[in-house]
Amino acid sequence: EPEVTQTPSHQVTQMGQEVILRCVPISNHLYFYWYRQILGQKVEFLVSFYNNEISEKSEIFDDQFSVERPDGSNFTLKIRSTKLEDSAMYFCASSILGYEQYFGPGTRLTVT
Amino acid sequence: RKEVEQDPGPFNVPEGATVAFNCTYSNSASQSFFWYRQDCRKEPKLLMSVYSSGNEDGRFTAQLNRASQYISLLIRDSKLSDSATYLCVEMNTGNQFYFGTGTSLTVIP
Questions:
Q1: Which residue of B has its CA nearest to A55?
Q2: In chain A, residues 15-74 whose CB comes closer than 8 Å to chain B
Q3: Terminal Cα-to-Cα distance of chain B (whole angstroms)
Q4: Euclidean distance between CA atoms B7 and B3, whole angstroms
Q5: A101: which chain B residues are within 8 Å (Cβ-Cβ)?
Q6: Contact A91, A34 (CB under 8 A)
Q7: pLDDT per position as a tens digit, A51-84
Q8: CB-based contact (8 Å) between B42 and chain A?
Q9: pLDDT in tens, B28-70
């Protein structure tokens, strides 16, 4: 069964550094998403991406964040100048038609 | 914006029991709802979609009540493997997912 994959599974970075989180969505899916979940809190929407552009973004997704689909398979989330409060689990998801979303296993980001 | 509200629980039920969770939403224009389950420190996994009046899949039944703006999930004949956090999700007209905080279920032998 096709799955969303994410790398790395755990990333530790120092405050102020830039990180890139990588995702490979399910191959025939057209919609891509990033979410984050701070430990003990709910899953929060960050951004959705369709047809090579951002279709929706939340208030959390400010200028510190960017997304890219550099080739036909990868979907990346870049976080510039990381802060302590960026520490969270980041989930990528994909959807074929923009309804049911399938989530990857997540990248745990720890900012020290 | 108050989006999706769930009773956090925890619900502790014996094996074989029937358990129901409710979830309320605030946006009357939302059309699509989902139930996901999340195991500790894992990703949400799609359990059921709730598009119209309801949906049934084996031991699981999801219902949507538009008049009262809530959805429910019923689990019959609970198994130990059903222990997880159940997440209610509302999809708004912009295809954004809003997650509830989740309801914790522990099925006890």
A1: B94
A2: 31, 33, 35, 41-45, 48, 55-56, 58
A3: 40
A4: 14
A5: 46, 97
A6: yes
A7: 999 999 999 999 999 999 988 789 999 999 999 9
A8: yes
A9: 888 889 999 999 989 999 999 997 778 899 999 999 999 999 9
